[in-house]
């Protein structure tokens, strides 16, 4: 993950100033299918909360391509 984030950060900093990643994270273990759906919706809503809906790198433009819930559930 650090390799991916580092490469992305390097590329983005050529175009934009400032921090790319937040300082920390909140670890959460998915408990069931409802929790999976709730977490997916939370992540999908992040660009809207930051005013980045029309940003070219917003992943939720491709919501139909996001991974679904694992078959094990």
Summarize the model shown:
By secondary structure, the chain is an all-alpha fold. The chain has 2 helices and no strands.
Structure characterization notes:
This protein has 73 residues and is mainly alpha-helical. 40% of the residues lie in helices and 0% in strands. It is built from two helices and no strands. The radius of gyration is 15 Å and the shape is globular. The model has no long low-confidence stretch (mean pLDDT 78).
Helix content: 25-40%
Distance between the termini: 25 Å
Tell me the number of strands.
Answer: 0
Please compute the radius of gyration using only Cα atoms.
15 Å
Give the ordered list of helices and strands.
HH
> Which secondary-structure class do the elements indicate?
mainly alpha
Residue-averaged pLDDT: 78
How does the major sheet shape up?
none
Please give the count of helices. 2
Low-pLDDT regions: none
Strand share of the residues?
A: under 5%
Gross geometry: globular
């Amino acid at each position: 993950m650090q390799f991916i984030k580092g490469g992305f950060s390097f590329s983005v900093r050529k175009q934009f100033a400032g921090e790319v990643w937040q300082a920390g994270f909140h670890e959460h273990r998915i408990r069931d299918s409802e929790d999976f759906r709730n977490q997916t919706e939370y992540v999908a809503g992040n660009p809207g909360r930051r005013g980045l809906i029309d940003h070219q790198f917003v992943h939720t433009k491709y919501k139909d391509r996001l991974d679904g819930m694992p078959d094990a559930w």
